[in-house]
């Protein structure tokens, strides 16, 4: 009887959510909803992008296997919060944690910027300098508090970054909000060899996070496993290496304009 009782704590440890059992037991698959947002993440990118590579490695260090489902961002977030997926990423770290989601400690993201056409002489001097302008944003994205919550801003919402930047080049908006790494990645697709974008101002340096819905029973274990993996990756240099390899490391990207 004493021997049986001693085994019980070991079994409980092995079966705890988010922990892998030894031997040949299959890894717990963690399904993460995301979007097509190169160079951070995308189905056709090497290793599915820098954020996917980082999340995959962080979870693998706890014996977990990350798989990604690509959806429009708003649907990815809402479907995850409804319990259809284990988590969603990449979210802006300053906007997400709350009653519905437990989000991990942040990891490096990139500069959120305002773009104009290259011939524009407009200069950003604060939120008032956007008065009377048409400002392009992406539907469902969170930007800065001022951009999202200034009632008089004339916002034009596009379904994705590529459409938003095309609206800028076509003159349908005067200014577009976009991550600088994303704009640099999309610039050749927008205009071939000729780029007509100008980075007018960096609004904020945005850190990123992974969010796990609180309604799932193992959300705390998954967040803990991710955090432990990230701590290990920071310590051994893997995080910086992955960001650099996938084009998501400082210095800020240069928009390839002539």
Give an overview in words.
It is a single chain. This protein has 258 residues and is an alpha/beta fold. It folds into two domains: 121 residues, 3-Layer(aba) Sandwich (D-Maltodextrin-Binding Protein, domain 2), CATH 3.40.190; 96 residues, Periplasmic binding protein-like II (D-Maltodextrin-Binding Protein, domain 2, 3-Layer(aba) Sandwich), CATH 3.40.190.10. Helix content is 33%, strand content 26%. It is built from eight helices and nine strands. Strands 1, 2, 3, 4, 5, 6, 7, 8 and 9 form a nine-stranded mixed β-sheet that branches. Helix 4 links the parallel strand 6 and strand 7. Helix 2 runs antiparallel to helix 8 and helix 5 packs across helix 6. The longest helix has 18 residues.
């Amino acid at each position: 009887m004493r021997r049986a009782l001693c085994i019980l704590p070991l079994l409980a440890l092995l079966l705890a959510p988010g922990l892998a059992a030894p031997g040949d037991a299959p890894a717990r698959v963690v399904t993460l909803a995301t979007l097509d947002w190169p160079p951070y993440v995308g189905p056709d990118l090497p290793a599915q992008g820098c954020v996917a590579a980082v999340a995959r490695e962080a979870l693998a260090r706890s014996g977990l296997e990350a798989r990604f489902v690509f959806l429009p961002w708003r649907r990815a977030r809402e479907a995850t919060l409804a319990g259809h997926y284990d988590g969603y990423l990449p979210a802006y770290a300053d906007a997400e944690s709350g009653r519905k989601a437990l989000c991990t400690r942040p990891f490096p993201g990139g500069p959120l910027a305002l773009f104009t056409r290259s011939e524009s002489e407009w200069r950003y001097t604060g939120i008032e300098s956007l008065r009377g302008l048409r400002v392009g944003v992406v539907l469902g994205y969170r930007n800065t508090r001022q951009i999202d919550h200034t009632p008089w801003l004339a916002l034009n919402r596009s379904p994705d970054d590529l459409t938003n930047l095309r609206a800028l080049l076509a003159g349908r908006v005067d200014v577009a909000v976009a991550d600088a790494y994303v704009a640099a990645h999309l610039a050749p697709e927008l205009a071939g060899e000729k780029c007509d974008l100008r980075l007018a101002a960096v609004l904020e340096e945005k850190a990123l996070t992974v969010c796990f819905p609180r309604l799932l029973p193992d959300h705390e274990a998954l967040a803990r496993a991710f955090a432990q993996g990230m701590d290990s990756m920071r310590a051994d240099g893997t995080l910086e290496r992955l960001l650099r390899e996938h084009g998501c490391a400082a210095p800020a990207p240069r928009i390839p304009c002539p």
